[in-house]
Design brief:
This protein has about 150 residues and is an alpha/beta fold. The protein is built from 4 helices and 7 strands, in the order βαβββαβαβαβ.
Amino acid sequence: MTSEHRIVVGVEGSGGARAALRWAIDEARHRQAVVDVVTTYVPTYVPAAPDLGFVPLDPIDLVGEVEKLQNEVVASVVESCDVGDVEIRQRLLKGRAAETLIDAATGADMLVVGSRGRGGFRGLLLGSVSHQIAQHATCPVVIVRAELLPEDA
């Protein structure tokens, strides 16, 4: 019985995430692996009243918006690169980005992320999520610097 080869890629809508997804698709072609696109989200809760506890702050359908963002990123990358016969799966997972991606990559061949995400400071070469992943993941980690890849790579 052969085990499935799987490359997990964290996607949150930034240019770095798009570059990471393009890189993961290319690598998956060479490894005959599935690309497992994971987008994480964390709802915001605020105190409602002393007796009621906490209620969601987000007035929108957060999961729906995150799913829409992920679908747009995947569609734009698939349109811009040669996917071939690579299978792409998509998952939305509730939780903090670094910890959730590390858990999602359990048993994977590798975990791929962009060097900088949507937050942080422009001058940083490595974002906080990619830094945590590099230190704590149990599989090989690839951190893709978008500025070093051509757009059609």
